[in-house]
Predict the 3D structure of the following.
Amino acid sequence: MDVIPLDAPVGAELRGVDLAKPLSDDEIAQLRDAFLAHHLIVVREQDIEGEDQDRFVQHLGPLLAFDNGVYHQFMTNQHVENAAMSGSGRLLFHNDGAFRSRPRAGTSLYAIDVSPTSPPTSFANGVRAYELLPENLRKKIDQLSAVHILDYDDPEQESNRVRQADFPAGRTLDDVRHAVHPMVVTLPYSGQKAIFVSEFYTSHILEFGPTSTEGEDILQQVFAVLYDEGNVYSHHYRNGDLVVWDNYGVQHARSGAIDSNPRHLRRLVLDTLSW
């Protein structure tokens, strides 16, 4: 098995591997080292079943069960059981579950049936962006936390950032899913630091408050580096592609709306990184 860094600001491709077969101990060690170093793993041209994706991803940690008790769901525009409720529009960059007290550790998608018009998943490197911030800004956000919101009652949230400052009169944080996390997180095993605020879920910086122009200016400075095109890789799926990424080190987005052509991917979520 070979680990080939992508010609991109994040990610590496595994080559010379058949995920329909169990990995050797040496290959498992290679996978884990590559995941820590590159934060996103791509494996192409795989003809696998669900159990093969499960086995591969579990080399990085235990899977999380969804609310219905199963460990997989489908990101799809087909009418199937266990389809995720993710809409069909563009999805802004985010870390999965940032509005929860314990966000997801990682995510994997396997392309079962995708068309050439299927929108890509784009990835922004939170580790690289942190390192690129001016030193004074890094030191500032190291000491700050942010409020993250998911508002189930807002039909526009999938394509628009929701801020507490924009709530209608009478609506409070108690009416939405929300959590507070440091603006900078430390990744397990590697000890690297990554930006943990996003254009999707982040409402405001806690210490500045929801209506602070200074707090919003800090967020926009961070977003400008994080979402610069030089810090983003877009993966255009072909059938048989598998991707898995670190949800703390990398943010992802659906970079376009889904049309009527097939876009059917199997999704797994890592509960923790653990080996």
Remarks:
- The domain at 125-226 is CATH 3.60.130.10 (Double-stranded beta-helix).
